[in-house]
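Attaching the record inline, Q. Sequence:
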Amino acid sequence: MDAASMGAGVLHPESAATRFALTRREPAADLAPFVDFYWVIRWDLTGQAPYEQAILPHPNVNLAFESGRAPAAGVYGVDTKVFKRRLSGAGKALGIRFRPGGFRPFHSASISTLNDRVVPASAIFGPATAATLDGVLAAADDEAMIACAARFLLAAGPVADPVTDEVAAIVARITAAKWVMRRARLHEAALRADAGEGVDWAALAADLGYADQAHLTRDFTATLGVPPTRYAARR
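Structure, as predicted:
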């Protein structure tokens, strides 16, 4: 797998592409009002040292199924900091990334209560979660895993809400401001650093709408934990 196919948010994608494979699939029409896409990750690090992957999250709720992890089926709220995942041995995971506002039909409480949290899926979806987890993990291929997860979501009886489309549109509009824009700019800065070419950080700061290079450096360091120049040097 090449680094470009990792997509925005996967930090140091060249290194990541040598450790695991990541694929994304679009949802069928019946779940398109709620689901942005399905993602499947597979890895085999047998005989190798564990690998820690850092991800700069997008403003979306995710539902993930994976054996050997607690919880094995979990709902991941929006992370406001870098998310890190340690991979070892061999395994696979199926994830569902929901559209902005798309998880609301499945969760009666405010979505903000999930921020920076991982909640067992059974606490939201009930006892059907266990059978779905077993089905996903026993599936022979990506299509079978996705089909199992899709049946699970449809069984919850989500009702499409016009407000979901409005929320998605609002998120798109505020890409020019606030938290979403900040995260989008940091995604772009990380992609530039990972491209392997010399980066004119002052020019990039101006391109991304920062007041100056120092502003970009503070924002980058506060979120990713290292200054952009050091991040680029660790490729």
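The mean pLDDT is 88. Strands lie at 20-25, 35-44, 51-55, 62-65, 73-76, 83-87, 90-98, 118-120.

More tomorrow.
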